[in-house]
Amino acid sequence: MSISNFKKHPSKSLIELYRLKNFQGANPASAKVLFVGKDPNWAVDIDSSPIFNLVRDYLSDGVEFWEKHGIHHPFLHPKYDGEGKKYHKAISGLNFKSNYADKISFVEIIGFPTTGMSSTNSKQFNEFLLSAENRNHLIELDHLLNDSTKMIFLFWGLINHLKFINIKTGLFKRFANIDKSILVRTDLNKIEHFYFHKHFSMGISSETLRKISIEVSQYLDENHR
User: Sign of the C-alpha dihedral, residues 17, 77, 40, 97?
Assistant: First the structure.
């Protein structure tokens, strides 16, 4: 399968779903654990996929979807074998059960759906990131990440993006002075309530997954039963 150019997703159905909810899983305002990603990236032809009815159900109510199907994301369905499956298969290695569904949210620094590889067009990615369309999303995300009662998981590369946003907008001040040189890229690193790890689709180790799973399980079982 050829990789499409990085752009806003053309699907009107997908865009409308994100207009209503620009997150996946539980509502991040009430969730206790946030996994922060780069952009909500979907295959360009996702709305003609045999699982698009599941995608619609998932984006409408991610908690109910997880509880009903026993998987946290429709990409884990056996009928799907496209872009994004590797990422969510790695997350499934955390072995979270559906009783955590209302406590875990997945958010990205871009709040509207995209397609293609953002790494192939950093200029376009940065334009989307700083666009007027994305501004309120960034403000809301900054507020969420400042909530020290939440566990926030971010992959290593997000540090640079958050530093960039801080320089351009003043948001995400807590990330401005993080020194990446003191962190271990292949391990789980903790600073305040933030946890930094290798990207889920870039060869994250089973040991790092184990550490994330333990941290989340202990936190939720002890504080949010």
Answer: positive
pLDDT of residue 2: 43
SS3 call for 146: coil
According to DSSP H, which parts of the chain are helical? 12-20, 52-60, 62-69, 85-92, 122-129, 132-145, 158-169, 206-223
Domain ranges of the chain: 7-223
Architecture of the CATH domain 7-223: 3-Layer(aba) Sandwich (3.40)
Whether the Cβ atoms of residue 56 and residue 95 lie closer than 8 Å to each other: no
In the chain, which stretches have pLDDT less than 50? 1-2
Residues 6+ apart with CB under 8 A from 42: 9, 11, 14, 55, 83, 84, 113, 114, 115
| Phi then psi dihedrals of residue 19, to 5 deg | -65, -35
Q: Cα(42)–Cα(46) distance, rounded to whole angstroms?
A: 7
| pTM for the full predicted model | 0.94
